[in-house]
């Protein structure tokens, strides 16, 4: 049986600011992934620091927190078969300068930091990240047939 998963996505401040929210949501829907929760928020420094706590020791951490709080983001929970890998494939590699055309980061990101989108990297991080920003009543399982 196929593995139905959930993953957590963020349309980052650079992509929201350039008006790419609709384009990215369209790519998600056209890929067959279901958007089962969605909201637009301005992250506080505390929220961004907590979300990226795993990168605390990295040299780019404070800049990353600054970037992620520089404007509103749009966050969504995506559901579908192998949703975690499928969303990362749509995003492309971390560095937008190296991401191929046709990927979100290749087409809509700028560099290694301002790379348009975030996606969970494993089932456990997906669970933690979803719970960090959405409570149970904000998430409705897809009623459409999953691809
Ligand atoms: P994400 O976690 O956002 O989906 P990722 O898993 O591809 O991206 P990570 O290594 O987890 O990449 O880094 C988290 C984020 O930190 C990146 O998406 C990017 O915005 C930023 N980042 C990563 N490496 C650098 C760097 N060398 N300099 C500046 N920012 C960076
Ligand atoms: Mg990551």
Please outline the helices and strands.
Layout: E1 4-11, H1 13-17, H2 21-30, E2 34-41, H3 45-51, H4 61-68, E3 73-81, H5 83-91, H6 104-108, E4 117-119, H7 123-133
Antiparallel strand pairs: 1-3, 1-4, 2-3
Explain briefly what this protein structure is:
Helices cover 37% and strands 19% of the residues. It has 147 residues and is α+β, with helices and mostly antiparallel strands.
**Rg on CA atoms, Å:** 14 Å
How many helices does DSSP assign?
7
**Assembly type of the shown chains?**
single chain
Bound molecules: adenosine-5'-triphosphate, magnesium ion
Q: Spans with pLDDT under 50 lasting ≥5 residues?
A: none
What proportion strand? 15-25%
The number of distinct β-strands equals: 4
**Shape field:** globular
Distance between the termini: 13 Å
């Amino acid at each position: 049986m196929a593995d139905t998963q959930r993953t957590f996505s963020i349309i980052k401040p650079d992509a929201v600011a350039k008006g790419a929210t609709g384009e990215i949501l369209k790519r998600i829907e056209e890929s067959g992934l279901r958007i089962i929760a969605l909201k637009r928020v301005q992250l506080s420094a505390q929220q961004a620091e907590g979300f990226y706590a795993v990168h605390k020791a990295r040299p780019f951490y404070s800049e990353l927190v600054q970037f992620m709080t520089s404007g509103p983001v749009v966050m969504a929970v995506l559901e579908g078969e192998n949703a975690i890998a499928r969303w990362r494939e749509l995003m492309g590699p971390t560095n937008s300068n190296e991401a191929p055309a046709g990927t979100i980061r290749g087409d809509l990101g700028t560099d290694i930091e301002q790379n348009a989108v975030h996606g969970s990297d494993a089932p456990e991080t997906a669970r933690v990240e979803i719970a960090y920003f959405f409570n149970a009543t904000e998430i409705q399982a897809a009623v459409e047939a999953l691809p």
